[in-house]
Amino acid sequence: MSQKKVNLGVREVPKPLNWISFSLQHLFAMFGATILVPKLVGLSPGVALITSGLGTLAYLLITKGQIPAYLGSSFAFIAPIIAAKAAGGPGAAMIGAFMAGIAYGLIALLIQQLGTDWLMRLLPPVVVGPVIIVIGLGLASTAVNMAMYEDSGAKVLVYSAKHFGVAGFTLALTIICAIFLRGFFSLIPVLIGIIGGYLFALTQGIVDFQMVLDAKWFAVPDFVLPFVDYTPSAAAVGIGIAMVPVAFVTMSEHIGHQMVLSKVVGQDFIKKPGLHRSIFGDSVATMLASCIGGPPTTTYGENIGVLAITRVFSVFVIGGAAVIALCFGFIGKISALISSVPSAVMGGVSFLLFGIIASSGLRMLIDNKIDLENKRNLIISSVILVIGVGGAFIKISGFELSSMALAAIVGVVLNLVLPESKGDQDGIEIEEHI
């Protein structure tokens, strides 16, 4: 556990001015990624900020104020939400997200009763690593379309060198900030990239700023109420079931974050207050988000980075950031400003963020020393990658299992049925003798 000096403990209350500045720092750290997800899937950024704040506050309550973790929009659900919206509209996507949240809750109950060994057996790194790679690479075409075309959502795509130039500028600025900036600004390269790309896009005439001028200072964002305005159908339930496997991927990510956070803070959060409470907090946050039209949530590595650098571990600081995010969601001009960001800017940032997601999966394989000369590991990872990146899916009547969900399920099944044997190294021995 960490022995470095702690500037503010988990349950310590900061002084008012420090409280505001520390909370704003956490808000900025998660802001770029949290608003990017709803922009990519066609949901309201204002609602995403509100659900991020509500979800974090619920998480802090459920974990008894003992884990300083911030919850933001999950990238793992981008492709499933897009597919669900295309198949059944926003309501169907939110019902699917709600069912994924229920899956979280059931897993939390199982962990409470049975411990964590069974979950590690179900989702080892050889399965989770390739699935995370699939998440990143599966979104690559989305980033390219946003960067290259005037309207990435149009039926007929029109190439635009101007839009591609804006995307390139945004990407370059984000990379420069990530590499060369230090201190607080090194924590928000995505936010700086979006702001810089937005200003450059203004000079290129591809920003509609009128919506910001017309927006009111106080405005209720576009909530989606799936269980009020949308009648669940068999197709919607099928879409929901198809989104559930994604929960296993984000749960694995959640567990990894808890391990890192425990080392940073110097307390074993897996044992106290317990992994079951942490995952259940994420479950409730995701279900809350889906009930009003926000993307599913997950713990954020960006905010863990802030904790590691500042040594300020106070849950009151995290709660302050959640309250500010909640307030921002009701400021109409801020929501309009976010909505006015051109897709080319978001595409440029996505080149980096989606690539980082894929690289994170690769890093998981390396860190856990997964031997791909072992035939069993090679088979599992290869099949997951081809199914996920290739876009394979299963469609029966109104039910469709997306490529990422299918890849995750096949990976789990292969890991359970393929025997672990020393004979998997035979290929290496033959090669050496030759």
Provide a brief overview of the structure.
It is found in: Membrane. The chain is 70% helix and 3% strand.
Strands, count: 4
Question: What is the global morphology?
Answer: globular
**What is the rounded Rg?**
22 Å
Question: Approximately what portion of the residues adopt beta-strand conformation?
Answer: under 5%
Based on helices, strands and strand pairing, what is the structural class?
Answer: mainly alpha
Numbering strands along the chain, what is their spatial order in the largest sheet? Answer: 1-2
Give me the number of helical elements.
Answer: 19
Task: Give the averaged pLDDT, no decimals.
Answer: 81
Assign a percent range to the helix content.
over 70%
Low-confidence stretches: 424-434
Sheet bearing the most strands, described?
A: 2 strands, antiparallel
Q: How far do the termini sit from each other?
A: 47 Å
SSE string, helices as H and strands as E = HHEHHHHHHHHHHEHHHHHEEHH
Would you mind describing this structure in some detail?
There is one protein chain. The protein has a domain at 16-140 and 206-372. Strands 1-2 form a two-stranded antiparallel ribbon. The protein starts with 15 loop residues before the first helix and ends with a helix. Helix 1 crosses helix 14 (315-328). It has helices at residues 16-41, 45-62, 78-114, 117-122, 125-138, 140-148, 161-180, 189-203, 210-214, 226-229, 234-265, 270-292, 301-310, 315-328, 332-339, 343-367, 375-390, 403-417, 426-433; strands spanning 71-73, 297-299, 394-396, 399-401. Residues 424-434 have low confidence and may be disordered. Helix content is 70%, strand content 3%. It is built from 19 helices and four strands. It has 434 residues and is an all-alpha fold. A hairpin with a 2-residue loop joins strand 3 and strand 4 (399-401). 51% of the residues are buried.
